[in-house]
Amino acid sequence: MARMLCIPALALAAVLEAATLRPAMAGEFSASLRSHGLVRQTASAGPLAQAHARYDGIAADQPSEGAAQLQLQGRMQWAGLQWHADVLAQAQRPEGGPRHTQAAVLEAYAAGQAGAWQWTAGRKVVGWDVGYGFRPNDLVQQEQRRALVSQPLQGRPVLMAEEFGAETAWSLVAVNPTTGRDATGAGEGALAARWYQRLGSADAYAFARWGRRTQGSVGAAGSWVASDALELHVSLRHLARFDAWEDSSAQPAALALASPWRPVLRQGAQQALVGGTWTNADQVSVLLEAWWDGTAPSRTHWRQWAERNAALQRLGVAGAPPIAVAANLAWQTQAFSASPSLHRQNLFARLAWTTGPWESALDMLYHPADGGRLYTASLAWKGDRLRLEGGLRASAGPGTAVVRQLPVQRQAYVQAVWVLD
Amino acid sequence: MSLALGMNPTRLMGLVVAALTVPALAQDADALLRDADRYRTGADNLQVDTLVQALASDGTLDKERRYTVFAQADRRTLVLMQSAAEKGQKVLMLGDDFWLLMPSSQRPMRITPMQKLLGDASTGDIATMRWSGDYSATLVGVEPCVDASVPTGTAASTQASSPASCYHLQLQATRKGVTYQRIELWLGQQRHEPVRAQLYVQSDKLAKQALFEVDKALSSVSAMVLIDQLGKQKQTRIRYLARKERTVPVEWLNPMFLARSPVLE
Q: pLDDT category, B150, cuts 50, 70, 90?
C-alpha cells in the first residue's frame, strides 16, 4: 500500500507549486489535492474466480490502486457572462501495473441571462432527484451512487435554459447534443425537463425525458420535512424503453466463441424510491430507503445466470477446453454491470454519527430476493483544511446470493483531501 | 389575607411594588425586544459578513470560518460559506424551511430544523439576526447583568463591560423552525442592548450561553460569544465584520437557482 501511495517527489512538488500559484487574472479560484489508496480482495467464489481456476489470467482482476489528484476550480465574470472551469489532473497506479497520468475537464461552461431565462452552455454537473442510495430521476448526470471512494463528478455536455420564480423553477436541458444515435446510458443524447414547486415544508418535482434511443420517460418526486427531526422523500419514474444487457447464448450449456452478452433495448419499466432521514440533537442520523428498480435483472434472469454458471462448470469437468470454459465464465461477470441495481428490490439503511471533528457511518444494502448484503463502514476526521477518511466494504449473505458472486468481495480504502485555497 | 398579614412589612411592600410595576413593564417586553434587535440588524434587508472562531478548551484558536449572511425581510436568510474548507456551501432558510447546498452535489437538500442546529456555531446561530416575530417576550424583572455561573476568564472583555443592571426577558418560540425553543435574555437597563442569553433547545436543555459585545459607538452588536453547555464548555466567537443594507434578487432565495452555483457577490 505504501508503495502504491508513493508519488515521485518531483511530481508532487510540481503539483503543489501549480496548486499554490494564483493565476494572474481576476476571479475566484480554488484548488484541492486528494490522494487515496484502495485495496481490493478478489473473490474465491463466483464466475471470475472459477474462470481463473480453469485458466489462470484469463481475465483481468480489478487491482488495488493508489492515486493522487489535483483539482483546480475557477470562475469569473467576463463580457457579461459567468465562466466556470473545473479540471482534474490524476496520477494513478494500479497494483502490479504501470503508473498512468491523465487530465480531465470536469466542468467548463458559460452562463448568462436572456430575459426571464437563465442559460448555460458547456460541460456541467446537473444533479436531480431526492434520494441517497438510488435516484431514478437523475435524468441528466445519472451519477453512480454509493461509490466507496468519493470522486469528483465529470459533468455532461449540456445546453440548458432555466426560469426561476419565488417558489417555482423550470429547467429545460439538451444533454449530449452532439452524440450519435448509438450512444447509451448517460451518454445518450436526450432532452430533459424538470418542474419544481415549493409547497411549504415540502418540495415537489415533475420530470420528463426524451432519449434518442430510449424515447420517453416521466417521473415525479417529493421531499417533505415532517417534523423537527424527520425528513421523508419519494421518487417515481416510468420509462417507455431502457437499455439492458442480454445473454444471447443458445442454451445454458453451450460454449460461446465470443461474449454472448449483447446490449438490448427493452420495453417499459418502473422505478420507485421511498425513504426518510431522522436526525437527533446528538448528531446521530438514520437513513432508511427502499427502492424498486424495474430495469435491474429479475429473479428469473439471475436464476438462469446461475444455471449457466453451473452448466459451464460441468462442461469443464466433462473435459471441455479449459480456456473456452474459463472465457465463458469470465464473460458471465458482464451481468453485474447490466443495471445500476443488481436486484429489483433493494433496502438500504445508514447510521451516521458526528462528534466534533469525527464522522462515522455504517450502512447496509440488502437484497430481499436472495438475502445478499453489502456492508460499508467509514470513519472520517475533518480538520480546517484537511479531511482524512478510511473505510471498509464487504459482501455477506448466502453463498448463492448475487453479491457473493462479485469479483471483489472486500475492499478497504484510505483517502486524504487537502483544500489548498 | 392572613398569609399576607403574617409577612414582614418590607417584603409585603416589595410584593405590592412588584404587583404594580410588572404589568406595566410587561406591556413593554415586545418593545424591549425590538430595541435589542436593532443592535443586531439595523435594517429589514441586510448583508452581514461574519467571522466564526471556534476556540479550544485552553482558549487557543481551533478553527476559523467566514460567512456572508443575506438576512432579508419575512424570515428569509441565505448563508454563504466563504472559507476555503467550506467554499461553495450554502444554507437557505425561508421561514421554517431549510435547504443545504453542497458544491459537489449540485442538488438542494431539504434539511430538518435538527440538522440546522448541528455544529459549534450552528447555521441558526449565524443566520438568526432577529428575535422579534419568532418569540413572544415576557419581562421577568430587573437583575444584575453579570452571570455568576460563567467561569472567570470566559469572554472577560464582554463580562467586564456589562452594564450593572439588566432587564431579564423570557422568550418563548412562537414557530417551530427556530433554533432555540426558549431563550432567557438580559438587556441593558438603560439602552436595551443585548448583554447575555441562555439558549434552550426543544428538550428544554440549556444548550449554550451567549455573551454579546457592543461596538464602541454603542450602536450595534459587534460579536457574540457562545459557550457550549452540553459538551466541554467550548467557546465560539461570532464577529460581525460588516453590515450593510442589501436586498437580494428574489431568485437568490430559490433553492433551484442556488444549485446552479451562481456567482452571488
A: low
**What pLDDT, in 10s, does the model give residues B6-18?**
445 544 444 444 4
Chain A residues with CB-CB distance to B263 below 8 A: 28, 75, 77, 82
Q: How confident is the model at residue A256 (pLDDT cuts 50, 70, 90)?
A: confident
Does the structure show a pLDDT above 80 at B1?
no
φ, ψ of residue A333 in degrees (nearest 5)? -70, -15
Distance from the Cα of residue B128 to its chain's centroid: 6
Closest of A421, A399, A363 to residue A50, by C-alpha: A399
Rounded CA separation A242/A247 (Å) = 16
Is the pLDDT at A23 greater than 50? The verdict is no
Angstroms from B255 CA to nearest CA on chain A: 9
- Cβ-defined contact of B84 to A419 (cutoff 8 Å): yes
Query: Looking at residue B23, what is its pLDDT?
Result: 46
Write out the H or E segment, with its range, that includes residue A346: strand A345-355
Which residue of A lies nearest to B105 if distances are taken between CA atoms?
A127
Contacts of B107 in chain A (CB under 8 A): 127-130
| Contacting residues of B for A285, CB less than 8 Å apart | 115
Q: Enumerate the residues of chain A whose CB falls inside 8 A of the CB of residue B96.
A: 201
Span B121-128, average pLDDT: 74
Whether B112 sits inside 8 A of A141 (CB atoms) is no
For strand B235-245 and strand A358-367, is the pairing parallel, antiparallel, or unpaired? unpaired
Q: Do A230 and B115 touch (CB under 8 A)?
A: no
> Closest Cα of chain B to A98: distance in Å?
30
Say whether B112 and A84 touch across the interface (CB within 8 A): no
* Cβ <8 Å between A169 and B250: no
- Phi-psi bin for A63: left (phi > 0), alpha (psi -120 to 50), beta? beta
Residues of A in contact with B232 (CB under 8 A): none
Q: Nearest residue on chain B to A225, judged by CA atoms?
A: B112
How many C-beta atoms surround the C-beta of residue B132 within 10 A?
A: 17
- Taking only the tens place, the pLDDT of each residue in B44-64 is 899 999 999 988 777 788 888
- CA atoms of A273 and A268, how far apart (whole Å): 17
The answer to whether residue A138 scores a pLDDT higher than 60 is yes
**HSE (side-chain half, CA atoms, 13 Å) at A201:** 15
Q: Which residues contact B195 (CB under 8 A, 6 or more apart)?
A: B145, B162, B163, B166, B186, B187, B188, B211, B212
Is the per-residue pLDDT at A8 higher than 90? no
CA closest to B120 among chain A residues: A356
Asked if B262 and A111 come within 8 Å (Cβ–Cβ), the reply is: yes
Answer whether residue A168 shows pLDDT above 90: yes
Q: Which ipTM value was assigned to this complex? A: 0.85
- pLDDT of A253: 77
CB atoms within 10 A of CB A171: 25
Q: What is the pLDDT of residues B65-81, one digit of tens each?
A: 899 999 998 889 999 98
Written as nine digits, the cell of B184 is 432567557
Rama region for A46: left / alpha / beta (φ>0; ψ in -120 to 50; rest): left
